[in-house]
Design goal:
mainly alpha, 2 domains, Hypothetical protein af1432
Amino acid sequence: MDFAGPISFVIVSSIFIKGLYKKWIPLFKKSFTFDSIDPKSIIIKKTAEFVKKELHEAEGGHDWWHTQRVWSLAKKINETERGDFLTVELGSLLHDVADYKFHDGNEETGPAKATEFLSSLNVDESIINHIRRIISNISFKGGNEIQSFRSIELDIIQDADRLDAMGAIGIARAFNYGGYKGRELYNPDILPVLNMTKEQYKTSSAPTINHFYEKLLLLKELMNTPTGKAMAIKRHRFMEAFLKEFFDEWEI
């Protein structure tokens, strides 16, 4: 029996298939890189990397882990509140990239740094301007400042940021920052100052327990979105329980 014909066919077919593989597989892989599939995801990824680097040695209450929690909370809230997902993700990632508390009180450092970075990624100018305004308006600043700008995306990110200032995490952050600034835990002779002005809030050096009454316990009623309001209830109750236990122990 002559096998020359079938063998030749197999050899030719094998060569042909290998040729196709070498020619088309690289093109296929190139066509389906992460960049080409979802450029917005690449922008978000690069932003996360940038912020993580910027906050590498930041104070523990305002470091990368705080930003990551706010980012996660904002995405969770946005599942029901339906803001623009790119703005929510970039805004939450960049909201504390240069907090004024660590930049001599300068409130323009953060927005400027975020603008410069996003411009380097060729992000749409309207999104950059929106995020700049979010960063400028997100902080508590005494709670009596009238926000000059509102949007659903700001509401979502602000709720996420406020949630991270509440509950067990909020308590830990408050005392970490108080320790960082060398503040007393509590002093019965120094009463909380309610309804502070922006400047009073920014320059306060009161004991950490006062911060609960001057800000943290006020946040539940300042939440913006229905989702944020619902999420704040448990964290608020935890802080109330903590304070009760704290004062019970203080008085022994």
